[in-house]
């Protein structure tokens, strides 16, 4: 995209999104950021627990 001065660069929407994402990631007192990070870590832990376990709960169990 070209601005009125003839320079090429990201559109204002993309630049604003990047700026707000950087501000969001670096704000240490932001409750939403902490909540999203904690939910992401929880989801990663659940994924690891479900996919990297040594046994499959859905597989048929041996008859004893």
TrEMBL record:
Coiled coil: none annotated. The chain crosses the membrane at residues 35-53. Keywords: Membrane, Transmembrane, Transmembrane helix. GO terms for cellular component: mitochondrial outer membrane translocase complex. This is Translocase of outer mitochondrial membrane 6 homolog (yeast). The lineage of its organism: Eukaryota, Metazoa, Chordata, Craniata, Vertebrata. The gene is tomm6.
């Amino acid at each position: 995209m070209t601005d009125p001065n003839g320079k090429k660069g990201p559109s204002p929407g993309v630049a604003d999104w990047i700026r707000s994402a950087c501000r969001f990631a670096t704000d240490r007192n932001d409750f939403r950021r902490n909540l999203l990070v904690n939910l992401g870590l929880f989801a990663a832990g659940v994924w690891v627990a479900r996919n990297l376990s040594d046994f499959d709960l859905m597989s048929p169990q041996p008859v004893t």
